[in-house]
Fold these 4 entries.
Entry 1:
Amino acid sequence: MKYAIIIPDGCADEPQSSLGGRTPLQAANVPQMDAVAAAGVVGRANHVPASLPPGSDVANLSLLGYNPLEHFTGRAPLEAAAQGISLGENDWAIRCNLVTIQDQTMRDFTAGHISTEEARELLAAAQGQLAQEKTGGDRLEFIAGVSYRNLLI
């Protein structure tokens, strides 16, 4: 028997006044999703231990059979692995977003949805600056991701 786990990650969203108080998912015409739900078993489960951040990275580890309390080390190592980047025992990967700051307030967590190419250029400039600064012998490297989502290793 084959199983499919469909994870509509993030689709719940928040009610929008422009949609009459409904969420985008409630307002959407999704006949295929409705058919899958009608033909399958729909249930609720909590796959995020209370001691970990409630995010798709933790929940998906659990759904795939990994105990997040043992295996979760953050989103950045997962994203590095997805990009084929091997991390050594002493490597440290962090996720960094390019953002828009105005008047000391973050106004946009996507830097205005900049393109991946623009993000690469900004990260190359930051990499050049880091190369000039003393890092105590450690090497820091920006790895361009998709648009505003990137890794620092």
Entry 2:
Amino acid sequence: MSGYKRSELIAAIGKATQLYQDATDAFDDAACEALGLNRTDLKCASVIAQREPVPVGEIGKLAGLTRGAMTTAIDRIERAGYARRLRHPSDRRGVLVELTAKGRRAIDAIWGEYVRTAEAFFSSYSAQKLKKILRYLEEGRIAQQANMARIKTLRIADRT
């Protein structure tokens, strides 16, 4: 890689990132098919898995959904047996959502192998290189969020 110009490396990183995003997107499609869920449901299930038990309203906010869309998605996830609603222990009107045992098994069946092999995958990377990868991912996420906010203001389809 020492023979590459800086601009060539940046372009190669951009291309590799796009290919990685495409592969992740295809993987998520396959996960949806295996689970019998759609992409919106998968977003909600991801929020539940990362933060369980999680208040219903927080799921909608983090998944970028309206209250109605979020409720419909949670209904489907619950019907599939992957999550359940619970009464909030300190808020009489509040509802929490958590994964069921079936939901945890499904997540492990789909994503567990990657998590279990991550140590081997990254074993040849020094701590310094891992920190650089982490920085790239964190800064990339921040850039994606900023660009998402920017493009939400565009109405390109209306201009054609």
Entry 3:
Amino acid sequence: MIKESLKEAETHMKGAITALEDLLATIRTGRASPAIVEKLPVEYYGAATPLMQIASISIPEPRQLLIKPFDASSIKNIERAILASELGLTPNNDGKVIRLNLPPLTEERRRDLAKVVHAHLEDSKVAVRNVRRDMIKDLREYEKEKLISEDDLKNGEEELQKLTDRFVEIIDVLGVRKEKEIMEV
């Protein structure tokens, strides 16, 4: 019973890590990355569609993204979506492809991005701790219903805390790596 609860907690905590990794990938650093625009919603035949589903995204130069729509008629909608986003990028289009030149980040913008990263890290830690809280509640419920002993409850809580500590450490490592990437000139 406790092992199943711990497995379930681990699965939820892994989900929080995966969500954080996806979120960190969208934060712009000094170099171009398709992840910056992949999930950008583009109006395509009346539906908001992620950019990666209607165009190929490549990196011809370290500070440039090349977006080649599968359907040339969607170029204007892609441009509109980029301009409406919070990326602060100006698309250049030649009728067939869109080029996005990524300007170098200013020191102030780097600090702002680092603050955004820290906010996302904290949100992920809260998510992991919420999983721990819910599982402890479940374990105490099991003990109250006499499904597990008091010793089992204690051991389960200790294992759960070790699991939580491990995932919080992973979050910290991801944060340090991303901050280093952002501050790199």
Entry 4:
Amino acid sequence: MKFILMMHAPSARGGYQIDDWSPADIQAHMDFMARFNQELRAAGEWAAAEGLAPPGQARIVRAGKRGKPEVTDGPFPEAKEFLAGYWIVDVETPARAYEIAGAASAAPGPRGVPLNMAIEVREVMAGPPTE
């Protein structure tokens, strides 16, 4: 079963709070993420993972006239959270996906204090079986 684990980060002045972290705190956070991803790879559960650019760089795209895309600025200003990154994991049970999400939520923030960010867990839909 594949699940997407989406890390939702709180907005801070329209951006991600990491902008205010010390270089040492940022490095500790990145080291945690690298180790975490390596553990998932070693367990055969890692399918994909990416951190995302800050919301200020996001754009909303809709189909426009004559098939041309209409591009507007990203997340609405009233958004209290934004998608900071995600993992796609391939696990045997939903319970295992929840365990992984809980571990990801504990990524360190300033002074090593766990961030306890919300991680949304959703099963990746599969198409009908092929014969």
